[in-house]
From TrEMBL:
Keywords: DNA-binding, Elongation factor, Protein biosynthesis, Transcription, Transcription regulation. This is Transcription elongation factor GreA. Belongs to the GreA/GreB family. The gene is greA. Necessary for efficient RNA polymerase transcription elongation past template-encoded arresting sites. The arresting sites in DNA have the property of trapping a certain fraction of elongating RNA polymerases that pass through, resulting in locked ternary complexes. Cleavage of the nascent transcript by cleavage factors such as GreA or GreB allows the resumption of elongation from the new 3'terminus. GreA releases sequences of 2 to 3 nucleotides. It comes from Brytella acorum. Residues 82-156 form the Transcription elongation factor GreA/GreB C-terminal domain. Residues 4-74 form the Transcription elongation factor GreA/GreB N-terminal domain. Signal peptide: none annotated.
Amino acid sequence: MQKIPMTRGGLARLEDELRQLKSVDRPAVIRAIAEAREHGDLSENAEYHAARDRQSFIEGRIMELEELVSTADVIDPSTLSGDQVKFGAHIELVDEETDKESAYQIVGVHEADIKQGLLSVSSPLAKSLIGKSVGDSVAVPAPGGDRTYEILKVTYK
């Protein structure tokens, strides 16, 4: 079984979601199914079918999360150092065309959220950055043509 790199925070979020699904959502959907069954004919009971669909989704997500949690390879970025970009690094970049600065942390695929600055290790930007150091320029393939960024700062927290 292949290990999936993940930060401690990413693993904690997955475990929280798993707990929520098992302790709150699963019992709620079981009650909804039981309630819908009491309304009679199941073949024309929209509430019953909606609850069963929801149950199917919840059970599938529980299985997926259990697999992710069991294969997580937790990497603690605070134990790393240097100015070279690795998994877990907090990076500050500047777009060399627009001078717009941005900041990201490189995280596992299942914990990425670009709105929160969590960049997937498998994204084109992260792939271009890994192994580079402060001061390096990196070209990143983009739909409108390559974008060039300069690495301003690399930290590990």
